[in-house]
Amino acid sequence: MRQLVLVLGDQLNEDALVFKDFDPKEDRVLMMEVREEATHVWSSKPRLVYFLSAMRHFAERLRGRGYPVEYWSIAEGISDLGSGLRRAIARIAPERIVCVLPGDWRVKEQLEAATADWPGLLRWMADNHFMDTPESFQAWASQRRGIRLEFYYRDLRKRFGILMEADGKPVGGAWNFDKKNRGTFPSEGPDLLRPVPPRFEPDTMTRAVMEEVEAVYPENPGDLASFAWPVDRQQALLALSKFIEERLPEFGTYQDAMWTNEPFLYHSLLSACLNTKLLDPREVMAAAEAAYREGKAPLNAVEGFIRQILGWREYVRGIYWWQMPRYVELNALGAREPLPGFYWDGQTPLRCLRDAIGQTLEHGYAHHIQRLMVTGLYGLLLGVDPKAMHEWYLAVYIDAVEWVELPNTLGMSQYADGGLMASKPYVATGKYIQRMSNYCAGCPARPDEATGERACPFTTLYWDFLIRHEPALAKNQRMSLQVKNLERKSPSERQAIQARAEAVRRDPSCGTLFA
Ligand code: FAD
Ligand code: SF4
Known about the structure:
The model has no long low-confidence stretch (mean pLDDT 97). The chain is 47% helix and 4% strand. Strands 3-2-1-4-5 form a 5-stranded parallel β-sheet, with helices on both faces. The protein has 20 helices and 5 strands. The structure holds flavin-adenine dinucleotide and iron/sulfur cluster.
């Protein structure tokens, strides 16, 4: 055989470079469901089903195109991708193996090690799904002292002519409309008559995957009863068009808002389709830009949405490949606490955490502010080891692939890279959550109290965080206001805060504190 095309679970892209000169007579595709990819972190059932179902649907689609596909399912019992590839070499003896650059450093290393006895056999191909390349990001980053998203994003807008006027100025005369994108819901909550995202009921293939996952990984976290994600290209395209027509117009305004028992609101829910490459970022951004130009969606929504995909998504990928493998070991704040057990079952009286973790286990989804300012913030303030936080995020979300999850967790959320990504730690008291949601109204804690029996643990731990890191934070200009406020606290107030913080650390779910 001339060429074996290895397709990994997050490479479900028919237009990938590996298929460019694919000859069904001489070449073959190999796809594998291996145990390690489900167990190296304690992967949730929704995440497992999402990836395996999308892979099986993709294999069917390739077969429909007349491509020979070797598909080794869970039942084959292959332990890891490396040993699977060695088995393929022994059985098929290809002249060469081609694979798109993986989304995970560990996988790349493993596949290279597995083929080390056959120099030149394995060839990496660039991932043409992305707008930028790791090399181009590194060239950009190495010319700068601070590598802030804003400047990278503007460069890409200009380079790719996205939301740009003919005269080279940004559409609408500004790069950023964030001020309009911090809306909150009125006291009665989000509009009950608003359009809701489409559900994709599991077909026979997905149901078979669900049964296998329940049988092989019965103890893994998460629940499959609500599973309704798009798992093939047709469904992904429908999810995209429904979002653009129905929810994009309000996306910007309510981007940061949260509401009890409302897991999706106006978000696109497209991250998993993008990360498995069922959708191309170009088509997603083009659809959003067209909606603006046709007067169907306002600029604050469209720019806010495009910024996430062209800006943040490309930027975190650049950071990942630039900084790995050292990045995953970073722990700038010396955080050593274990991950609280309730992150795996959502059992806590604290309403915001219960809601965000509950929907995560139910759907494999939480939106950005829930990840950053609820689960992420709590871990940061408690002082949880950033690697443990990283492993949790990688395990529970259906869109989790290391290149995108790791910088978001370690860099943006946990400040473990000491400010490479975020210019200051994203820390706030419970009052931020109160402002952006209705969670606090249904919670036994009080967001404005830092000490005492009803103290909100976010508020207590916020002050405790400032106290613990005061010398380092005092050097950061962007933290000066927060540090000044801390300076106003008397020694006895500080003592009371630290005593309450210790009590929270002993009982991080607050199940006993609020019994
Ligand atoms: P929308 O709110 O509709 O945004 C549109 C799209 O923009 C998303 O689909 C996504 O592709 C992209 N996007 C938005 N924010 C980011 C971001 N910060 N980085 C990269 N792309 C972004 N995103 C993942 O795709 N996979 C992850 O594993 C992941 N882990 C995260 C962990 C933490 C701690 C945090 C704070 C964020 C994480 N994110 C991750 C980013 C973001 O939370 C998700 O992309 C978003 O919530 C997905 O929901 P959505 O598709 O409805 O996004
Ligand atoms: Fe969360 Fe504190 Fe509000 Fe309770 S009071 S919901 S713990 S922010």
